[in-house]
């Protein structure tokens, strides 16, 4: 009896102790002070859930126009859709609490400090204004997968927009779309920047964007090599052999693409001393997730890369990275440590990302064959039967799903809409940038002052392999037949969409001059680039991408969107893909997040649900996306 009473007393003490502790151990970035917090500002501190009052003029609503977003409850992430755990009373016992420390607890304490607290720049800065232009890339020799090569010259286009308030203390968001081979004008023009071209708000013009991320930080948009306004350079672009040689895997593979973006980011920061040491958050969509993964991995592990211990080696790039960190932190000598890099490059926002190569696509195919798959919703609505691969050894489940959706006349990027809806919708807004007046209005600076845009100054510039410009015939893509089946499906759909709905030509030539047929001022999607990436030794489908992603999330704070309507990268499969990597012990699902458990630690991934969003979340639910990112930063 005495033993029983003693046991009961101990049990009661244990229960009281547990009830006084949170049910979930928050990551260090949530327990400590906000690493991205702005300086106190009475005009902006009263409401942490809505965009800046100075921009909205209405604190009672989140949407400027009901037609702009299907999210009808955007003041905070919709509890019915997201299960906001921040306001719930913790349970007495957390079944997901493994007792493991968070992977970034040790380095996280150091990374909370802003490398530059802005004390030297506490007043209004004079060198941060809206600007656009080019950053030059020279030829660079490198080694990838034990093969030596040299990347060609390019001029990389960027848009920069400073934060609304205290830009010298705010993080720099670097935003881009994917493809590979896609410009970044979609994410720039659709509801993240200061202006929006979204026709549901702007009609036929350009309008103020209530959900601009300038309220959160400084914004830098970059067009990848040979996309958007970026262009390649050869000695004699009129020579077809010179153009054709440029479109090789020497210029278009995962690691060279990442190196391009690292160079642009570091050179941009170097040209803007007021924010040179500010925190940086990468925000990439689709293949942009692969790009983010490679960029972060190279930066975090530059010392290891410089020691030639990884698959990629670019001595000039590594020296440039080292020089940057030595300049912002005198304590750094030689190559910076992972902890030093993580103090600045500390966050990644992945918008429907391809981040884990083929394993992720395999997981998507498997989830789409489950009984609760959205493909059965399509079947019920269209009457077209969905036939699964089942156990067939020669049936790729991901490609099978994409084929089914297209054959049912639905959009693989937005399955509740008709075939190619997303690009038909966004082409309308993107075409506006080809009209000089709207180009100027959207970038909020004068493109007429950018010398490298003019035909007379585009020495060596070209955009296309073919003398006749953009190829709209699938048969013309020599590399097409060697591509993975899923890529063939995607490229075919894109070419068919562009053939049916050509992008408006605009009037830029009337301002900047007439270009030869192999050149063009703006390219929204370059399919030759896309196909070239998948012929590289390290392609977006390679397992190394997933291995780098899993390595990165141990250190970098991560936000991944969970958009319901996107079939091509069906987000519900993302945690399942994580489980496929041997270094992962298990994955615990929670509302709006999942926790990845390793043998020695765990990391929590923010994973908000967007029930009405396509592959491009900022197009469909910009208000919720804005608020979710804002909450993630707190």
CATH topology: Rossmann fold
Q: What is the first-to-last residue Cα distance?
A: 52 Å
State the name of the first-level CATH class: Alpha Beta
In one word, what is the shape? globular
How many β-strand runs?
A: 21
Helix content: 25-40%
Q: What structural category arises from helix and sheet content? A: alpha/beta
Going by CATH, the homologous superfamily would be Alpha/Beta hydrolase fold, catalytic domain
Radius of gyration: 24 Å
On the 0-100 scale, what is the average pLDDT?
A: 84
Number of domains: 1
Number of helices: 25
| Known CATH architecture | 3-Layer(aba) Sandwich
Enumerate the spans where pLDDT stays under 50 for 5 or more consecutive residues.
1-35, 37-50, 52-91, 106-123
Major sheet size, sense and barrel closure: 9 strands, mixed
Percent of residues in β-strands? 5-15%
How does this structure look, described?
The chain has about 625 residues and is α/β, with parallel strands linked by helices. The protein has a single domain (about 140-634), classed as Rossmann fold. The chain is built from 25 helices and 21 strands. Strands 1, 4, 5, 8, 9, 10, 12, 15 and 16 form a nine-stranded mixed sheet that branches. Strands 3-2-11 form a three-stranded antiparallel sheet, with helices on one face. The chain has a three-stranded antiparallel sheet with strand order 18-19-20. Helix 9 (about 255-270) runs parallel beside helix 12. The termini are far apart.
